[in-house]
Each structure stands twice: as structure tokens, then as C-alpha cells.
Amino acid sequence: MKTARLLLVCFSACLPALAQTKPAATPAGKSALDKAALEAYLRHVELWIPQVTVKIDDPKPSKILPDFMDVAVHLSYNGATKDESYYVSKDGSKVLKGDVYDMNKSPFQANLDKLKTDLQPSFGAAGAPVVLVVFGDFQCPNCKTEAEVLRKNIPATFPDKVRIYFKDFPLETIHPWARTAAITGRCIFRESPSAFWQYHDWIYDNQSSITLENINAKVQEFAKEKGVDGMQLGRCVETKATDADINRSIAEGHALGVAATPTTYINGRKMEGAMQWDVMEQLIHLEIDHQAKTPDAGEQCCTVTIPRVVK
């Protein structure tokens, strides 16, 4: 049984020319999607200004709606990017936007399928029933606020119930040294996973005094203080040896529709912005209670395998 929250739109409503033109026959198994018509229609519906660049991927068969195709739309403007997803009928005449839920699975299954936590910085209990995946930016003030909340309260309140993973999502258009900080963090993580969290806490603590011009010198001070190999770290940062790691994390964020930091996934549930601890604590308790009754997330986000209740 499925439920859906969908916005249904018909091309003929705003593009009468399409309704008056008889479409050419579409070969069997092919989609009748007209990318130019779809872009024009979505620009009208979503109010995208002309300066926004729109790229539409080729449609893929939808695993959720049999008579529809999944269509990814990529937007860019002044260096910023955002991804949107739509369902388009096979005849190209209907567009759906929204969330589709399968009651036999976690309501956040689509997010769980995209979240990859292997070889990512983490702390907390292994095999925990609640997993938080945080997309953060080391130059982001709101990320600093949330990081302080999580690092202080999670180990104290949920020592065996929560595991946290960190994913880099530097907002380079507004934070000039965020990517350098992310590359540095990944270099440190390669050398010592535990040292990464020392760096994580240190860079947020020193966020206000770091600039694009002094970040490398500051990092060397950190390395000397914490016993990290400064020469090896410097080579790694200079050659951007971990740049591909950052790109993968950013691409994953785009696939999930991340557009702001921090964005936190609680067993796949997307939460944007820094949350107050009382709100976060309540959400985690609710998720723990839910997992006790119907386990459908937790560390399963790492393998994307969701167990079902066997009757």
C-alpha cells in the first residue's frame, strides 16, 4: 500500500501550444519527454529567473511509480547549484513533484539509499539504533553551533544509542576557506581517524580567527600541538590529495537535495539548520522508541538493507 504527497501538473494548462500540436509517435519503450518543453514549463511553475541555468538529465524508469519516469533537474546560478527531482509520465504530459511513501519500508528509504557512511568520520556506538549523518561546512557559523551541541550532548545522553557521521559540504560561493578546511580534515582523517575529531572541534573553536590567508599556518600550529605529522599533512593539503573525497561528499549531498548547512539526517529523516538540543533530544528519543517497535533504519543506513517484521 502506498501513500503519496504529489503536486500534479498538466502541460496543457500553461502550454496550450503543446495541446494543439499532435505529438509524433513514440517508439515502444521510449519516453516522450520533451526537455525544452519541460524546462519552459518548470521555469514558469517554479519562477526560475532567466539567469538560472537548467540542465535536465535523461529520464530513468521510476521504481516507485510504474507509469512515470524519474527526471533529475540541475540548477546553477552565480556558482551555486541545486538539484530537483520530478516524476514525468511516459507520454510526457504529466509532471509530479513530491514525496511518495511505501508503507512496507522506511518513509525515508530514498534518503537511506543515497547515504553512504563507509570510511567516513564517525563517533558514537557502533550498531546504534539511531544514526545521524551531518553535512557540514567548517566555515559555517550554524554548523559550529550544531557541532558543539552534538559533541557535548550525544556521548553524555545517548552513549550506546547514537552514532554520528560527518560529511563535507563546503559552500564555496560564500565561504572562501571552507574547501581548504574540508581537504585538510580529510587529510588528517587518512592519517588518524581519531585526530579528525580533534581537528573538527579545533577548527570550529577557532572559526572566527581563521582566514583564507592564514588557514595553512593555523593548521600547522594545530598539527604541532596535537602531534600530527605536519610535513605529511602539508603535502597532502598542497597536492589536494583528498579533493576527490570532498567531491564525492558534495555530489552525495546534491543527490539528496542538500542546499544548506548544516543538514542532518536522523535515520534518513532530513532536518535543515542547527537545532536546539531539546528538539534534537526529543527527535532522537522518538526514533529510539520507533526502532524498538519496528527497526527500519539505524546502522542499516550503512548497508542500505532494511529488515522487515516477519509474521
Explain this structure to me?
The protein is of the alpha+beta class and 311 residues long. The chain has 2 domains: 2-102, no CATH class; 109-302, Glutaredoxin (3-Layer(aba) Sandwich). The chain contains 11 helices and 11 strands. The protein has helices at 11-14, 16-20, 35-46, 109-114, 141-157, 178-191, 193-205, 215-226, 230-238, 243-256, 277-293; strands at residues 2-10, 53-56, 60-61, 68-77, 80-89, 94-102, 122-124, 130-136, 162-168, 263-266, 269-272. Strands 1, 2, 3, 4, 5 and 6 form a 6-stranded antiparallel beta sheet that branches. Strands 7-9-8-10-11 form a 5-stranded mixed beta sheet. Helix 5 links the parallel strand 8 (130-136) and strand 9. Helix 6 packs antiparallel against helix 7 (193-205). The radius of gyration is 22 Å and the shape is globular. It starts with a strand and ends in an 18-residue tail after the last helix.
